[in-house]
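Late entry, evening session. Most of the bench is empty. Finally got around to the prediction I had been postponing all week. Sequence below, unchanged from the version circulated by S.P.
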Amino acid sequence: MFKIPATWMRGGTSKCWVFEWDHLQVPGKTVDEVLLRLFGSPDHRQIDGVGGGTSTTSKAVILSRSISAEADVDYTFAQVGVDEQKVDWASNCGNCSAVVAPYAIERGWVAAGADSTSVRTLNTNTNQLILQKVDTPQGELLYPGTQLIPGVPFPGMAVGMGFFDPAGRTTGKLFPTGEPVDKLDFAGRQVAVTLIDAGAPLVIVEAEAVGLTGHETAADIDTREDLLVHLDDLRRGAAVQMGLAASRATAERAIPKLALVARAGEADEADVVVRMLSMGRLHPALAITGSVALTMAAQHTGTVLAGLISTDVSAGVTMRTPAGLVQTWSETIDGATVVGALRSARRIADAELILPDTW
């Protein structure tokens, strides 16, 4: 029996278990095997582990002090399969990224400032540098915090996050095919899509093009298995076009994500309406890496998204999601494009997870 220290935290609209790399080293086992057993996968309920039975509650963040001169903390994100015996390391989770700075300050890896503390975090999945800023009045973290965000009913610690030069971190190009619009098969016909890599790879398609309005609820989408099959086939086709997979069959479930977008009405009080799918189901709010990609797509002429927006989005984008409004900001710092968003985070528990000797 092995005892593995872990911290349970909420980051944005996701929950994740936070580990340090050294604590996951178990003789004779890979890190993938350890995570799958700790989370109780594969099992749609994850009944014998710490997973929550959904993609947004089956996530791990693994931290270490940075070996890079440009960062304070290195972190790797792992999307643990729920009913699959697989761990996906291909991309980052922007929501879970919000736990990194509070954890590093709490552990003393980064000294807290008198008013606020900036932590330079490097995501190893995408080699993305993210500058995180947390309020630390009198050198102390604020617990539990007062920041409310869409999709979370209770407040948490405010974490500002800026993604530096997010374009092409996975594929090498903002538009992996070289074009702002491509055509992909959907249910036997072709639809226009934007394939973009910023923060994380994303497929953007107009909701109307796949028979939706963009205002659907989770119940409207997640219960339509025929629709989900066609959307996932489109997403897998995008993975091949973006160079992320050799075939549809080998495409990862977590990457690329897919965003359904629609023109915003006056009542939406937003620049655009978004419904994002993650791991084959509707995301309760919005993946933050997805919001980075959407922001950059909105700012480039010729994309599917830019064609739906009539407002000036050069400074950021306001997006209507199932949980409410998500706002991003965009600016240039020292010659680098920085796209950011405000999240909240909260430490839920410190734990010692029990890993059986055999399974």
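Two things to note before I forget:
The chain has two domains: 2-166+343-355, 182-328.
The mean pLDDT is 96.
Will write this up properly tomorrow.
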